[in-house]
Give the backbone structure.
Amino acid sequence: MAFPPIPPLPEEIGELPPVLHECGEPLIPLSRLSPRIVLYPAYFHQGYDGAMEEIYLREKAARLLVQVAERLPQGYHLVALDGWRPCQLQASIYERFRQTLLSQGWQEGEELDAELDKFVAKPSNDIRNPAPHFSGGAIDLTIANADDWLEMGTPFDDFSDAAATRYYEELPSPSERELAVRENRRLLYHLMAEAGFVNYPKEWWHYEYGTRRWAKETGQVAVYGGIHLG
Protein backbone atom coordinates (compact mmCIF):
# COMPACT_ATOMS: atom_id res chain seq x y z
CA MET A 1 0.00 0.00 0.00
CA ALA A 2 1.88 3.06 -1.28
CA PHE A 3 0.82 6.64 -0.61
CA PRO A 4 1.90 10.01 -2.04
CA PRO A 5 3.91 12.52 0.01
CA ILE A 6 2.24 14.15 2.97
CA PRO A 7 1.13 17.58 1.70
CA PRO A 8 2.18 20.85 3.34
CA LEU A 9 0.19 21.27 6.54
CA PRO A 10 -1.17 24.56 7.95
CA GLU A 11 0.76 25.40 11.12
CA GLU A 12 -0.57 28.92 11.71
CA ILE A 13 -4.34 28.84 11.27
CA GLY A 14 -5.29 31.85 13.35
CA GLU A 15 -7.80 32.10 16.15
CA LEU A 16 -9.95 29.02 16.59
CA PRO A 17 -13.73 29.46 16.71
CA PRO A 18 -15.66 28.61 19.88
CA VAL A 19 -18.01 25.66 19.88
CA LEU A 20 -21.48 27.17 19.52
CA HIS A 21 -23.50 24.01 18.93
CA GLU A 22 -22.33 21.02 20.93
CA CYS A 23 -23.63 17.88 19.21
CA GLY A 24 -24.15 15.86 22.38
CA GLU A 25 -22.37 12.71 21.24
CA PRO A 26 -21.24 10.54 24.16
CA LEU A 27 -17.72 9.44 24.91
CA ILE A 28 -17.30 5.75 24.22
CA PRO A 29 -14.48 3.39 25.24
CA LEU A 30 -12.13 2.22 22.49
CA SER A 31 -11.23 -1.09 24.14
CA ARG A 32 -14.33 -2.91 22.88
CA LEU A 33 -14.66 -1.42 19.39
CA SER A 34 -12.34 -3.49 17.21
CA PRO A 35 -9.64 -6.16 17.56
CA ARG A 36 -7.59 -3.98 15.21
CA ILE A 37 -7.45 -1.14 17.75
CA VAL A 38 -5.14 -1.92 20.66
CA LEU A 39 -4.83 0.38 23.66
CA TYR A 40 -1.59 1.56 25.22
CA PRO A 41 -2.66 4.45 27.49
CA ALA A 42 0.70 6.20 27.61
CA TYR A 43 -0.04 8.70 30.37
CA PHE A 44 -1.55 6.01 32.59
CA HIS A 45 1.63 3.95 32.25
CA GLN A 46 3.73 7.05 32.97
CA GLY A 47 1.82 7.80 36.16
CA TYR A 48 0.26 11.17 35.27
CA ASP A 49 -2.43 12.51 37.62
CA GLY A 50 -5.91 11.91 36.22
CA ALA A 51 -4.82 9.35 33.60
CA MET A 52 -7.00 6.27 33.08
CA GLU A 53 -6.43 2.77 31.73
CA GLU A 54 -9.31 3.12 29.25
CA ILE A 55 -9.17 5.49 26.27
CA TYR A 56 -12.31 7.33 25.19
CA LEU A 57 -13.37 9.21 22.05
CA ARG A 58 -16.61 10.80 20.88
CA GLU A 59 -18.83 8.25 19.20
CA LYS A 60 -18.48 9.35 15.57
CA ALA A 61 -14.74 9.93 15.87
CA ALA A 62 -14.40 6.45 17.34
CA ARG A 63 -16.42 4.89 14.50
CA LEU A 64 -14.24 6.65 11.94
CA LEU A 65 -11.19 5.25 13.72
CA VAL A 66 -12.58 1.74 13.24
CA GLN A 67 -12.78 2.45 9.50
CA VAL A 68 -9.11 3.47 9.54
CA ALA A 69 -8.15 0.26 11.35
CA GLU A 70 -10.05 -1.86 8.84
CA ARG A 71 -8.16 -0.25 5.94
CA LEU A 72 -4.74 -1.14 7.31
CA PRO A 73 -2.76 -3.88 5.55
CA GLN A 74 -3.35 -7.42 6.78
CA GLY A 75 -1.51 -8.08 10.01
CA TYR A 76 -1.40 -4.42 11.05
CA HIS A 77 -3.39 -2.64 13.76
CA LEU A 78 -3.73 0.78 15.36
CA VAL A 79 -2.26 1.53 18.77
CA ALA A 80 -4.26 4.20 20.61
CA LEU A 81 -2.03 6.15 22.99
CA ASP A 82 -4.38 8.85 24.28
CA GLY A 83 -7.84 10.21 23.58
CA TRP A 84 -10.20 12.22 25.76
CA ARG A 85 -8.45 13.90 28.68
CA PRO A 86 -10.02 15.20 31.87
CA CYS A 87 -8.78 18.64 32.90
CA GLN A 88 -6.75 17.11 35.73
CA LEU A 89 -4.69 15.11 33.24
CA GLN A 90 -4.26 18.10 30.90
CA ALA A 91 -2.97 20.17 33.81
CA SER A 92 -0.60 17.36 34.84
CA ILE A 93 0.86 17.07 31.32
CA TYR A 94 1.19 20.85 31.02
CA GLU A 95 2.98 21.22 34.34
CA ARG A 96 5.34 18.30 33.75
CA PHE A 97 6.37 19.71 30.36
CA ARG A 98 6.78 23.15 31.95
CA GLN A 99 9.11 21.70 34.56
CA THR A 100 11.06 19.88 31.84
CA LEU A 101 11.62 23.14 29.98
CA LEU A 102 12.68 24.93 33.16
CA SER A 103 15.17 22.15 33.88
CA GLN A 104 16.60 22.68 30.39
CA GLY A 105 17.36 26.32 31.16
CA TRP A 106 14.22 28.10 29.96
CA GLN A 107 13.17 31.10 32.04
CA GLU A 108 9.67 32.03 33.14
CA GLY A 109 8.05 34.42 30.71
CA GLU A 110 6.47 34.78 27.30
CA GLU A 111 9.05 32.64 25.45
CA LEU A 112 8.48 29.74 27.82
CA ASP A 113 4.70 30.10 27.48
CA ALA A 114 5.00 30.14 23.67
CA GLU A 115 7.11 26.98 23.68
CA LEU A 116 4.62 25.24 25.96
CA ASP A 117 1.74 26.24 23.69
CA LYS A 118 3.41 24.64 20.67
CA PHE A 119 3.02 21.19 22.14
CA VAL A 120 0.63 21.17 25.10
CA ALA A 121 -2.66 23.06 25.21
CA LYS A 122 -3.22 25.15 28.31
CA PRO A 123 -5.65 23.36 30.65
CA SER A 124 -9.10 24.93 30.79
CA ASN A 125 -12.61 24.03 31.94
CA ASP A 126 -14.11 26.26 29.24
CA ILE A 127 -16.42 23.88 27.37
CA ARG A 128 -16.84 26.30 24.43
CA ASN A 129 -13.08 26.71 23.93
CA PRO A 130 -11.67 23.38 25.06
CA ALA A 131 -8.22 21.93 24.57
CA PRO A 132 -8.47 19.35 21.77
CA HIS A 133 -8.29 16.28 23.99
CA PHE A 134 -10.83 17.69 26.49
CA SER A 135 -13.35 17.73 23.62
CA GLY A 136 -13.06 13.98 23.05
CA GLY A 137 -12.27 14.58 19.39
CA ALA A 138 -8.48 14.23 19.52
CA ILE A 139 -6.59 10.95 19.31
CA ASP A 140 -2.88 10.19 19.65
CA LEU A 141 -1.95 6.96 17.93
CA THR A 142 0.50 4.90 15.93
CA ILE A 143 0.52 1.69 13.89
CA ALA A 144 1.90 -1.75 14.75
CA ASN A 145 2.35 -5.07 13.00
CA ALA A 146 2.54 -8.53 14.54
CA ASP A 147 6.09 -7.90 15.74
CA ASP A 148 6.22 -4.33 17.06
CA TRP A 149 5.16 -0.72 16.61
CA LEU A 150 6.20 0.70 13.26
CA GLU A 151 9.24 2.98 13.23
CA MET A 152 7.96 6.56 13.13
CA GLY A 153 11.26 8.36 13.64
CA THR A 154 10.60 9.63 17.17
CA PRO A 155 8.77 8.34 20.23
CA PHE A 156 5.33 9.60 21.14
CA ASP A 157 5.51 12.99 22.88
CA ASP A 158 8.95 13.75 21.49
CA PHE A 159 9.02 17.51 21.01
CA SER A 160 12.00 17.74 18.69
CA ASP A 161 11.90 19.00 15.10
CA ALA A 162 11.85 15.38 13.92
CA ALA A 163 8.39 14.91 15.47
CA ALA A 164 6.88 17.24 12.85
CA THR A 165 4.66 15.18 10.58
CA ARG A 166 6.42 16.21 7.35
CA TYR A 167 9.99 16.15 8.72
CA TYR A 168 10.99 13.09 6.69
CA GLU A 169 9.39 14.50 3.55
CA GLU A 170 11.90 17.35 3.59
CA LEU A 171 15.18 15.45 3.99
CA PRO A 172 17.40 15.97 0.91
CA SER A 173 19.10 12.53 0.93
CA PRO A 174 17.16 10.16 3.19
CA SER A 175 18.71 6.88 4.28
CA GLU A 176 16.91 3.55 3.95
CA ARG A 177 15.70 3.87 7.53
CA GLU A 178 14.46 7.39 6.92
CA LEU A 179 12.65 6.27 3.79
CA ALA A 180 10.93 3.54 5.82
CA VAL A 181 9.90 6.08 8.46
CA ARG A 182 8.56 8.35 5.74
CA GLU A 183 6.40 5.54 4.33
CA ASN A 184 5.07 4.66 7.78
CA ARG A 185 4.08 8.25 8.47
CA ARG A 186 2.44 8.48 5.05
CA LEU A 187 0.42 5.36 5.80
CA LEU A 188 -0.90 6.81 9.06
CA TYR A 189 -1.48 10.29 7.67
CA HIS A 190 -3.37 9.32 4.53
CA LEU A 191 -5.62 6.74 6.20
CA MET A 192 -6.55 9.23 8.92
CA ALA A 193 -7.04 12.10 6.46
CA GLU A 194 -9.23 9.98 4.19
CA ALA A 195 -11.43 9.15 7.18
CA GLY A 196 -11.90 12.87 7.88
CA PHE A 197 -9.31 13.60 10.57
CA VAL A 198 -6.86 16.52 10.51
CA ASN A 199 -3.30 16.35 11.80
CA TYR A 200 -1.47 18.74 14.11
CA PRO A 201 1.69 19.34 12.02
CA LYS A 202 4.19 19.42 14.90
CA GLU A 203 3.14 15.94 16.09
CA TRP A 204 2.96 12.97 13.70
CA TRP A 205 0.78 11.06 16.20
CA HIS A 206 -1.95 13.67 16.83
CA TYR A 207 -5.23 13.76 14.86
CA GLU A 208 -8.55 15.53 15.40
CA TYR A 209 -12.16 15.28 14.28
CA GLY A 210 -15.06 17.56 15.21
CA THR A 211 -12.81 19.95 17.13
CA ARG A 212 -12.18 23.66 16.73
CA ARG A 213 -8.96 23.05 14.77
CA TRP A 214 -10.76 20.55 12.55
CA ALA A 215 -13.49 23.12 11.90
CA LYS A 216 -11.00 25.86 10.99
CA GLU A 217 -9.05 23.61 8.60
CA THR A 218 -12.04 22.01 6.90
CA GLY A 219 -14.38 25.01 6.78
CA GLN A 220 -16.98 23.19 8.85
CA VAL A 221 -18.56 23.89 12.24
CA ALA A 222 -16.96 22.55 15.42
CA VAL A 223 -19.31 20.06 17.08
CA TYR A 224 -17.29 18.84 20.07
CA GLY A 225 -17.09 21.17 23.06
CA GLY A 226 -15.49 20.26 26.34
CA ILE A 227 -17.04 17.18 27.91
CA HIS A 228 -16.87 15.36 31.21
CA LEU A 229 -17.05 11.59 31.48
CA GLY A 230 -20.42 10.30 32.62
